[in-house]
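Input structure tokens:
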């Protein structure tokens, strides 16, 4: 497949690029910084673009691709930009008909304790330092609910994304955090990328929201 990955130099983006290349896909990596793009290894096309500065950039880049993967995260202090960045991809998807696979956030996922609280609403669950991006992710989630004119799928991470091994093992959920036997909700960036590429390669299910997490902690971490 011809895949274009926006936010290709972030933690999620880098692992997604690696996973896509390992599976033999043709990859176009997009980011704002040419320097960080050059640091990405592998046979890929590197494109420097700022979706907020150029309204038409996303649609131009997306045209001719088989699928779009959005791994966009604004820098600290600019968290509300996440909605505008997501809007740019949705407009591009609407104009071109290319399916979008959006990296969401865990903010609106329910806790697995049956309390009915979400990650964002649960008292004392989130550190104050991550509340701005969590609120932006909740706004992104609401945006997706309103947009039915683009073919999007959203994969939301568990409570914790870790630098860890690629095991290829994960469980998918829908609106509740996936947890392991110890009640932890976590996954490595590498396995999150596996889950994302599995969705991209799988049967089309437009307007689906999913989440992924480990059901069992890999031995490398458990030990």
């Amino acid at each position: 497949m011809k895949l274009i990955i926006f936010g290709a130099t972030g933690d999620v983006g880098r692992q997604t690029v690696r996973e896509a290349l390992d599976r033999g896909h043709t990859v176009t990596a997009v980011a704002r910084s040419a320097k960080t793009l050059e640091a990405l290894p592998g046979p890929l096309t590197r494109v420097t673009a700022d979706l907020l500065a150029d309204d038409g950039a996303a649609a131009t880049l997306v045209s001719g691709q088989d699928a779009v993967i959005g791994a966009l995260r604004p820098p600290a202090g600019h968290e509300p930009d996440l909605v505008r960045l997501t809007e740019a991809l949705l407009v591009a998807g609407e104009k071109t008909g290319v399916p979008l696979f959006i990296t969401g956030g865990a903010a609106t996922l329910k806790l697995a304790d049956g309390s009915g609280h979400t990650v964002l609403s649960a008292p004392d669950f989130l550190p104050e330092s991550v509340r701005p991006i969590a609120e932006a992710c909740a706004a992104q989630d609401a945006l997706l609910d309103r947009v039915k004119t683009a073919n999007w799928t959203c994969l939301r991470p568990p409570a914790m994304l870790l630098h860890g091994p690629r095991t290829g093992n994960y469980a998918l959920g829908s609106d509740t955090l996936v947890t392991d036997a110890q009640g932890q909700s976590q996954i490595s960036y590498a396995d999150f990328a596996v889950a994302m590429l599995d969705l991209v390669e799988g049967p089309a299910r437009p307007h689906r929201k999913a989440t992924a997490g480990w059901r069992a902690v890999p031995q490398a971490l458990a030990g």
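The chain has seven helices and ten strands. The chain has a mean pLDDT of 95.
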